[in-house]
C-alpha cells in the first residue's frame, strides 16, 4: 500500500518538510507498507496505519536531504522537545534512520551530503552515537569507493 501524506491545516509547520513515510515508520517501529495515511496538522502529525492511529510530534522527525536545511528555529523546536522529554539529545531512532540512509546512498557524493547534514546536528548527538555513525560512514565510504560492501547493523 502506498501511504498518502496530506496537508490538513492552512498553516504549514516548518518541520513538515522533513516528514517521510520511512522516518515515521521507523519512529513507530512498524513497516512502512502498513501506513495508510499521514496527515500533517499545524502542531502534530496524525499517522493512520493498519490497526492503529497515532499522533507524532514534528520535533521527533529527523532532518533529511532534498529539502531546505535545518534552521536555527528548527533547532530551537527540537531542543524544546528534548527538554520536555528530559533528554538533551536526539531520539535514539535518529541514529538508526541515518544508518539506513548511509546504507541507501548510491554514490560518495550522496553519502558525503548525509555526513554534512549529521555534522549540523552533531551537538545534539551523544558521543556513543557519533562514534557509531562515524564507523558506519567509514564502512559505507569504503564500500562505495571500492565496491566491496560488508553488511552492518546498529
How would you describe this protein?
This protein has 154 residues and is an alpha+beta fold. It has two domains: 1-61, no CATH class; 63-154, no CATH class. 43% of the residues lie in helices and 14% in strands. It has helices at residues 21-28, 72-84, 93-104, 108-120, 127-146; strands at 4-7, 35-40, 44-49, 52-57. Strands 1-2-3-4 form a four-stranded mixed β-sheet, covered by helices on one side. Strand 2 (35-40) and strand 3 form a beta hairpin. The longest helix has 20 residues, at 127-146. The radius of gyration is 16 Å and the shape is globular. 20% of the residues are buried.
Summarize the structure.
The chain is an alpha+beta fold and 154 residues long. The chain contains five helices and four strands, in the order βαβββαααα. A four-stranded mixed β-sheet has the order 1-2-3-4, with helices on one face.
Structural class, from helix and strand content? alpha+beta
Helix share bin: 40-55%
Assign an overall shape: globular
The radius of gyration computed from the alpha-carbon positions, rounded to a whole number of angstroms, is 16 Å
Mean pLDDT comes to 90
Strand order of the largest sheet: 1-2-3-4
Question: The biggest beta sheet, please?
Answer: 4 strands, mixed
Report, as a whole number of angstroms, the end-to-end distance.
28 Å
Regarding quaternary structure, what we see is single chain
Low-confidence stretches: none
Number of helical runs? 5
Secondary-structure element sequence? Answer: EHEEEHHHH
What characteristics describe this protein?
154 residues; four-stranded mixed beta sheet; 5 helices
